[in-house]
Amino acid sequence: MEGVSHIGFIAASYAAAATVVIALIAWVAVDFRILRRTLADLESRGMTRRSAPAGRTMEQAREDA
Amino acid sequence: MALADLANPSRFLNFANRAIPWLAGLTFIVFAFGIDQAIRAPDDYQQGATVKIMFLHVPSAWLGMLAWTVMTVAALGTLVWRHPLADVAAKAAAPIGAAFTLLCLVTGSLWGRPEWGTYWVWDARLTSELVLFLLYLGVIALWRTVDDPSRAARAVAILTLVGAVDLPIIKFSVDWWNTLHQGASVFRLGGSTIDPTILMPLFVMAAAFTLLFATLHLAAMRNEILRRRVRTLRLMQASTVS
């Protein structure tokens, strides 16, 4: 049967697809966790996200916030 | 919520946080159905069982082109309308598009070896697809080269618009040149030449891949917004230290 002789190519294709999909999901998920943790860490140090331009002091930022 | 409201990054984040779990669930269900359909699909009278590779190869080829189309629209959003999320959308789409284009090239090679007797030929369709992959790498490299996201966005937008020329070349390469790659067989005048028993699993897998792209793109856009917030806070922090 032709399919049996080509099973290696079919399996390799599905393995490649699974690898790419899992890698993409892992990249997005790990990146999200790292960013969320970093953001929480910065905010716990008193840095709050706001529209203050860079160059203002932390105190000014806190006052504005 | 009006579509224009999503231009606000905070509102977009709220929307993304609510939409991503639903999209991910739907993607999983459609993928499960698509893979089941692909397994049950009959062998092709010429390709035999290797037709099952097409259920991965064709959708990944479409998604590789779709991602660049999204980036092209986003590039116009950056250069013309200066939409606040346009460059975020473009940056988020590039690695996903690159991954799908790579998958298209790999699965195409794995199909080509048993069917054509070779993994690769420098024919117009394969070469233009390889050019698309290299363009993706160029865009990703350009994003990493320039520190300031807004400056990088303009440079990337120009490269993206130039690279968009490759999309019609990929699509029509099989008509404009003599290629080993087959001509259009799904979307063509006169209807598809593919039997419905193979066409249906192909469409289901294409829907699953498209949903996967939408989910990953939304999640990657959310990450990019958070990355810019981290950058802003770090700049604020650095200014307090100096």
What does it look like?
The complex is a heterodimer of chains A (65) and B (242). Chain A is an all-alpha fold and 65 residues long. Chain A has a domain at 24-48 and 55-65. Chain A contains three helices and no strands. The longest helix of chain A has 38 residues, at 7-44. Chain A is rod-shaped and about 65 Å long. The relative contact order of chain A is 0.07. Chain B has one domain (16-177, 194-228). In chain B, α2 packs across α4 and α4 (124-145) runs antiparallel to α5. The radius of gyration of chain B is 20 Å and the shape is globular. The interface between A and B is large, with 42 and 40 residues.
Our Rg estimate of chain B from Cα atoms comes to: 20 Å
> Helix count of chain A, per DSSP?
3
**Largest Cβ-defined interface:** A-B, 42 and 40 residues
* Number of domains as seen in the coordinates of chain B: 1
Basic shape of chain A: rod-shaped
Order of helices and strands of chain A: HHH
User: Roughly how many Å apart are the termini of chain B?
Assistant: 42 Å
Shape of chain B: globular
* Biggest sheet statistics of chain A: none
Which spans of chain B have pLDDT < 50 for at least 5 consecutive residues? Answer: none
Topology pattern of chain B, helix = H, strand = E: HHHHHHH
> Total helix count of chain B?
7
Number of strands of chain A: 0
Q: What structural class results from the helix and strand content of chain A? A: mainly alpha
Indicate the structural class of chain B: mainly alpha
What share of the residues of chain B does DSSP label as strand, in percent?
Answer: under 5%
Helix content of chain A: over 70%
N-to-C span of chain A: 72 Å
Low-confidence segments of chain A, given as residue ranges, are 52-65
